[in-house]
């Protein structure tokens, strides 16, 4: 197999060629979901940043478009966001055309090289052709650097209650909140993060949005903050906070403190490969979903992964939900429902008896094509045992996952997944996630796409996303328990087809 055939995902977005990192500027307009991304079109490692662009009608399959924003004399184009300015608050609209306004960070390399610390500032650009081409604003930057070294990744959100734009920005290890009436003049409001959250790395790519707590009328605000290192399984990862925002200040909900782990954080994904993710803007109220996508890699090894032609993919687009059980807020994620439109074959088994200590095959490549699968199953009444699921091939490459119900953790294990030697940080151990008990019943949904696994435990309460690079394609799916026989209930294996 050539690298291309073996490693390029079937449906997760990858750039046609060269480097990609964070998703940027996502908005929905006129039937299309737009996805921009940190892109270096001239090389397969990080370099002068552009905004690449892709569009989709369903967030599952993507069409890459021409580059949207190029670096210029003011700097590289770092991460940011975009909004549909339907009321033309910016005045950029012309001849009845609705402007799309993007806000990004200029990173001035020359200033950085000189040793100055004020090399990042915020700038805007607008598009009058639905996001295809962009005009940078003549008076950029719109927010100058206030002498803070890391000062970047503006995410704009419309505050419908206070009728103004709110912007969240990562500044060192804090979040700064700003507001504006016209997207050009920005007023500083407040900051957040001093005594809470993981501070093991620089804060990046924040997002702020209001959500209804499922099954209630209660509205809470969720703040996402990516942190460069010190994730639950080391490396870069994205934390979240649930609280209230009054148009000026974000306050974490007092009950949410109980939700924080040893790093004082709570994670949207416990796998090693979901970073810098944010949500789409302008999703119609009739839809009402909070839709998220992340970069499916980790700064620990992103520039070393064994693909040459392209580097990095995005996660599957996910719907976020906020739940409250036993007085605990929890952000859940599941793949967008649109994925089910691509099911080409289904293998179903209502119940399978598994004998302890024995590897039991659940399916293999004579029954389904392993390129991309969407799998669901349940186990009721977990015993004090370890339940290990395994994708592998005859060569012996394996990706394992499951639950250790003795020590109470979920895991994902790529330590024998094939090519792991490109970085010592790629698979030093198995990855773990804290166990969120569900009356001892386990429900699993997972997506497999050639070089990635996204595991959604208990309806998306705990998520683990990990990439891997097997030397041969995966051919089989099996399971093993150690000490107790058990039943797998409602196994559904959906083969996905994108041709
Ligand atoms: C996050 C990040 C952002 C920055 C961008 C640069 O991965 O470091 O903070 O804007 O990548 O490419």
What can you see in these coordinates?
The chain is an all-beta fold. The protein has two domains: 16-335, Tachylectin-2, Chain A; 338-496, Jelly Rolls. The protein is 2% helix and 47% strand. The protein has helices at 3-7, 109-114; strands at 18-29, 32-40, 50-56, 63-69, 76-84, 100-107, 120-127, 135-136, 151-159, 164-171, 174-180, 187-192, 203-212, 219-227, 237-245, 250-252, 275-279, 290-295, 310-311, 318-325, 328-335, 343-354, 360-364, 372-379, 386-392, 398-404, 409-413, 431-434, 442-449, 452-457, 462-467, 476-481, 486-496. The strands form seven sheets. It has a six-stranded antiparallel β-sheet with strand order 22-33-24-29-30-31, with no helix packed on it. A hairpin with a 6-residue loop joins strand 3 and strand 4 (63-69). The longest helix is centred in the first third of the chain and has 6 residues, at 109-114. It is globular and about 70 Å long. The relative contact order is 0.13. Residues 21-22, 38, 49, 78-79, 105, 152-153, 204-205, 276 line the site of beta-D-fructofuranose (FRU).
């Amino acid at each position: 197999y050539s690298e291309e055939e073996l490693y390029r995902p079937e449906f997760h977005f990858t750039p046609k060629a060269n480097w990609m990192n964070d998703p940027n500027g996502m908005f929905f307009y006129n039937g299309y979901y737009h996805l921009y991304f940190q892109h270096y079109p001239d090389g397969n490692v990080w370099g002068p940043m552009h905004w690449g662009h892709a569009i989709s009608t369903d967030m599952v399959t993507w069409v890459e478009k021409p580059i949207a924003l190029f670096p210029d004399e003011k700097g590289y184009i770092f991460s940011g966001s975009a909004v549909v300015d339907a009321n033309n608050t910016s005045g950029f609209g012309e001849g009845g055309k609705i402007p799309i306004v993007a806000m990004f960070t200029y990173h001035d390399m020359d200033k950085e090289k000189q040793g100055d610390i004020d090399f990042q500032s915020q700038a805007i650009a607008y598009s009058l052709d639905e996001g295809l081409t962009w005009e940078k604003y003549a008076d950029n930057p719109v927010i100058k650097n206030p002498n803070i070294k890391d000062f970047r990744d503006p995410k704009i959100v419309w505050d419908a209650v206070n009728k103004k734009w709110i912007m969240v920005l990562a500044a060192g290890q804090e979040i700064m909140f700003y507001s504006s009436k016209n997207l050009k003049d920005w007023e500083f409001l407040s900051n957040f993060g001093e005594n809470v959250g993981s501070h093991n790395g620089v804060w990046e790519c924040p997002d702020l949005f209001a959500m209804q707590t499922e099954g209630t009328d209660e509205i809470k605000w969720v703040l996402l903050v990516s942190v460069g290192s010190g994730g639950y399984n080391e490396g870069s990862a994205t934390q979240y906070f649930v609280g209230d925002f009054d148009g000026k200040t974000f306050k974490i909900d007092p009950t949410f403190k109980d939700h924080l782990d040893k790093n004082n954080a709570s994670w949207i994904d416990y796998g090693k490969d979901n970073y810098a993710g944010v949500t789409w803007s302008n999703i119609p109220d009739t839809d009402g979903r909070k839709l998220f996508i992340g970069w499916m890699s980790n700064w620990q090894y992103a520039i070393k992964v064994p693909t040459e032609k392209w580097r990095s993919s995005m996660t599957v687009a996910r719907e976020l939900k906020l739940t409250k059980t036993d007085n605990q807020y929890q952000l859940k994620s599941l793949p967008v429902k649109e994925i089910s439109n691509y099911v080409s074959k289904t293998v179903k088994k209502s119940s399978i008896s598994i004998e302890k200590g024995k590897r039991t095959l659940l399916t293999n490549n004579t029954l389904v094509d392993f390129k991309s699968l969407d799998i669901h199953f349940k186990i009721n009444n977990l015993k004090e045992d370890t339940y290990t699921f395994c994708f592998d091939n005859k060569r012996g490459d394996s990706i394992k996952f499951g639950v250790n119900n003795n020590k109470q953790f979920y895991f994902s294990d790529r330590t024998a997944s094939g090519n792991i030697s490109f970085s010592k940080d790629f698979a030093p151990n198995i990855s773990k996630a804290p166990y969120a008990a569900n009356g001892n019943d386990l429900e699993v949904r997972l997506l497999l796409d050639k070089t990635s696994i996204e595991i959604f435990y208990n309806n998306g309460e705990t998520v683990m996303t990990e990439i891997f690079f097997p030397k041969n394609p995966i051919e089989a799916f099996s399971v093993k328990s150690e000490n107790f026989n058990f039943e797998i209930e409602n196994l559904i294996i959906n083969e996905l087809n994108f041709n």
